[in-house]
Amino acid sequence: MDWEGFTKTRHDLQRPLLVVSGSKGVLACSYLNVATFAALAEAGAIVRGVGDFEDMLEAEIIEASPAAVQLGVHPGMTGRQALDIFR
Known about the structure:
The protein is of the alpha+beta class. The protein has helices at residues 34-39, 53-58, 66-71, 79-86, and strands spanning 7-12, 16-21, 26-29, 44-47, 61-64. It is globular, with a radius of gyration of 11 Å.
């Protein structure tokens, strides 16, 4: 994966809190909540069970905010597919 254009953030907790931000949206682990993305009209998608950024690429999107859905991101697609849209 070419990570150019993305900001990756990791916080080491019991499980890592992982966030990848692009110019159009955010891919995050399930520590974050789609309801907050939705309330703020932000594009965000959530993956679960990931331990690092590479895991996020292959993980299935479990939730996506309405703004993310408008961009073409939806549950069932991979994190890699979402990031291609969020770039």
